[in-house]
């Protein structure tokens, strides 16, 4: 089978805030040490909604990349790149579009939602309808096994699984597949070839799942097989199709969600965000002026943490003892709100210290980020080109 691989992207929205960090980046940083990861700036995706104002995208792209690095995304572990620098994404998007039913795109829930939300923009465009298909190309082109995203993106991942399945179904039939598969069986050596054929028959004629598993394990062990022959033999076990694109799994971001200062979703446009690299004084001021439970007008009024956005910050930042101190102190008016906020301020400042440090070298020398991304673009492009070679061949486009 194809190797495990993680792919995820973000639209360039400029400087990141703590909502992005807790909602997505922390998860990326965890995954980068576990599996090969590709993280990219989805600049073409930004154009689907900002086609009339593309000037902001460049600046936002670099700002976002500095923040990824500041947060701890490590270019020696993960591949960082920019979508538009790997034009193969566009080629796959085009080829996938040929067989994608319009209904699949119109049904994606974010489509109607976004059109309603961004009613000041004309989003009745071809590009905007195709957003989830471009996203499918972003992931399928790397044959990713896992995609870390928030739950709003789950329908997109489900659709890309359907796209991959449909593609394999339509084009997975290689010319002369049967003969090529039988050649590959011979390359296993006579003992293994015999076992392979027996297990294949057991599975196909008697539906024995254990035989399928055993055959797959044997193929995993067969060192001498080329990648493509291994794929053929996997496909041949179950039928006569070759897996060209891989159906990815969703990897949901762990639910540490940090709301904005006012309790709504954290967003720069709501003015309720703390920037990833906000300076100390501003962090302190922003948290000190956060709204609290409206019932606590005076210091002597008891409060209810459940009605207070500061409590949600404690949920992310504080240990059990601190949380208990808050819960008791708030409901008994034993502590004041300024007092209650101090541990949150301290925790945010502590969390941000290494981010400021890591960012400094990139601010001092902007060519560093350019170099990291140039390397990432090259590495991503190589992988994308491998897949596209197979895709073109499968679709009968490999003539020259
Ligand atoms: N649609 C994603 C978002 O709005 C961004 C994105 C584009 C993405 N391509 C992707 C995420 C591929 C994961 C994989 O957040
Ligand atoms: Fe909110 Fe803390 Fe004030 Fe209670 S004491 S209202 S939890 S800030």
From TrEMBL:
It holds the Pfam family tRNA-synt_1b. It comes from the Bacteria. GO terms for molecular function: tryptophan-tRNA ligase activity. The keyword ATP-binding applies. Its EC number is 6.1.1.2. Keywords: Aminoacyl-tRNA synthetase, ATP-binding, Ligase, Nucleotide-binding, Protein biosynthesis. Belongs to the class-I aminoacyl-tRNA synthetase family. This is Tryptophan--tRNA ligase. It comes from Janthinobacterium fluminis.
């Amino acid at each position: 089978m194809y190797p495990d691989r993680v792919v995820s992207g973000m639209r360039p929205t400029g400087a990141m805030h703590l909502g992005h960090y807790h909602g997505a980046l922390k998860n990326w940083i965890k995954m980068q040490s576990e599996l090969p990861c590709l993280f990219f700036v989805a600049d073409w995706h930004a154009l689907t909604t900002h086609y009339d104002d593309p000037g902001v995208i460049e600046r936002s792209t670099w700002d976002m990349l500095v923040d990824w690095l500041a947060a701890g995304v490590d270019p020696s572990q993960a591949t960082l790149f920019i979508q538009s620098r790997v034009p193969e994404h566009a080629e796959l998007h085009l080829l996938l579009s040929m067989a994608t039913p319009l209904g699949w795109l119109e049904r994606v829930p974010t489509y109607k939602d976004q059109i309603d939300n961004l009613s000041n923009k004309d989003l009745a465009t071809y590009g905007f309808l195709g957003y989830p298909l471009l996203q499918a190309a972003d992931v399928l082109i790397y044959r990713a096994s896992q995609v870390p995203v928030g739950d709003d993106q789950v329908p997109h991942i489900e659709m890309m699984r359907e796209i991959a399945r449909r593609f394999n179904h339509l084009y997975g039939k290689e010319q002369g597949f049967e003969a090529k598969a039988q050649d590959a069986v011979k390359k296993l050596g006579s003992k293994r070839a015999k076992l392979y054929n027996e297990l294949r028959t057991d599975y196909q004629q008697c539906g024995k799942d254990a035989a399928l598993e055993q055959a797959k394990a044997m193929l995993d062990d067969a060192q001498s097989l080329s990648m493509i022959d291994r794929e053929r033999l996997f496909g041949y076990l179950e039928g006569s199709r070759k897996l060209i694109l891989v159906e990815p799994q969703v990897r949901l971001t762990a639910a540490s969600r940090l709301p904005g200062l006012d309790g709504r979703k954290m967003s720069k446009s709501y003015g309720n965000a703390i920037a990833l690299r906000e300076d100390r004084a501003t962090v302190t001021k922003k948290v000190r002026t956060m709204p609290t439970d409206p019932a606590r007008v005076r210091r002597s009024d008891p409060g209810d943490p459940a009605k207070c956005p500061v409590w949600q910050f404690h949920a992310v930042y504080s240990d059990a003892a601190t949380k208990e101190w808050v819960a008791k102190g708030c409901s008994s008016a034993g502590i004041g709100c300024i007092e209650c906020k101090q541990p949150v301020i301290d925790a945010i400042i502590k969390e941000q210290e290494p981010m400021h440090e890591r960012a400094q070298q990139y601010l001092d020398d902007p060519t560093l980020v350019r170099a990291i991304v140039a390397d990432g673009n090259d590495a991503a492009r190589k992988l994308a080109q491998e897949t596209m070679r197979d895709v073109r061949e499968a679709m009968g486009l490999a003539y020259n």
